[in-house]
Specification:
The chain is of the alpha/beta class. It contains seven helices and twelve strands. The longest helix is centred in the C-terminal third of the chain and has 13 residues. The N and C termini lie close together (11 Å). Bound molecules: flavin-adenine dinucleotide (FAD) and NADP nicotinamide-adenine-dinucleotide phosphate.
Amino acid sequence: MKTTDLHHHTASESSAVAEDLPGTKPLTPQLNAMLVGRQDLHPELSIVRVRPDQGPAPPFRPGQFVTVGLLDAPAEHSPPKLALRPYSVTSAPDKREDVELYVNLVREGALTPRLWTLHEGGRLYLKPTVGGTFTLDEVPNGKDLVMVATGTGLEPYISMLRHFRDKDRWRKFVIIHGVRNVADLGYRGELEAAARTDANVFYLPTVTREGWPGLQGRVQDVLFTGLYAQCVGAPLSPEQCHIFLCGNPVMVETVESELVARGFRKHKRREPGNVHKEAYW
Ligand SMILES: Cc1cc2nc3c(=O)[nH]c(=O)nc-3n(C[C@H](O)[C@H](O)[C@H](O)COP(=O)(O)OP(=O)(O)OC[C@H]3O[C@@H](n4cnc5c(N)ncnc54)[C@H](O)[C@@H]3O)c2cc1C
Ligand SMILES: NC(=O)c1ccc[n+]([C@@H]2O[C@H](COP(=O)([O-])OP(=O)(O)OC[C@H]3O[C@@H](n4cnc5c(N)ncnc54)[C@H](OP(=O)(O)O)[C@@H]3O)[C@@H](O)[C@H]2O)c1
């Protein structure tokens, strides 16, 4: 992907940065934030914290994303280019001195290899507005929320859990997290503790590429077998459940189709349903 390719948000993000460039002379885009924390779970998976220079991060709702930018090394006679990518926020919206993000390295990618060279104190760009509709805004209270993630698709659910826990927002909050290896189970300690101390929170991690004492297989092997009802104590029913799907786009599409075949409906603003989705690429 080219560094100027901006996923779904191309035009607006491009101009947001271009406005910082007066005149026609190519100037370095303005980096307006700092990396203030980095916890490497393994060499290709990190939790990072980004603090804007000008006061708190923009207001956001759990499940929304920020846009991060990093410059490449400038080639001779050409200005450095800014790669911009969206990242869901894991922090809760009442803690906005910085934003916490959960990121994996894509070796052939434009932004993440640059992020991996950055240490605490490193400079980056944080777009001053947030985006996204992958939130609980249109979900009624008192439902069973089934939050399905692969890899770093876990992010939005961490923010939701941190923010809405103890606010009587759901009947049950179930996280099904599919990863390749046990080391990819980010936030495991926090989620295990939440499930241990709150009878309405369920944490079902499942691993595909190595043996371990926990659940084995893809997220479908938990959702569409007797395992779900056995672990949660209630069926996966379209009447009671809202399902959120986040991460690997093939997982999102195939699980959504399977849910529709089982009587669930895709959620659209004008046509409310109970399957909500966010694909990461
Ligand atoms: C709404 C939204 C929220 C997102 N939130 C997160 C997040 O919280 N954490 C996170 O790590 N990523 C997230 N992403 C993906 C992120 O924006 C970047 O695409 C990713 O970090 C890779 O960036 P890159 O520039 O290094 O590679 P890119 O140049 O963007 O991608 C190169 C290729 O790698 C593949 N790819 C892209 N992203 C991934 C990925 N995460 N895993 C595997 N393969 C991938 C695609 O095939 C892509 O064409 C999100 C994407 C969207 C649309
Ligand atoms: N995680 C690592 O250790 C690792 C190592 C090197 C590089 N990377 C890079 O990191 C990026 C993301 O890797 P990732 O492991 O986070 O994401 P991923 O490849 O999407 O895998 C995460 C989980 O999703 C599962 N999955 C894949 N396709 C699915 C589908 N159609 N339906 C349901 N589940 C599905 C995988 O199962 P399967 O195992 O069955 O595919 C795995 O359990 C990639 O660019 C990768 O190259 C990761």
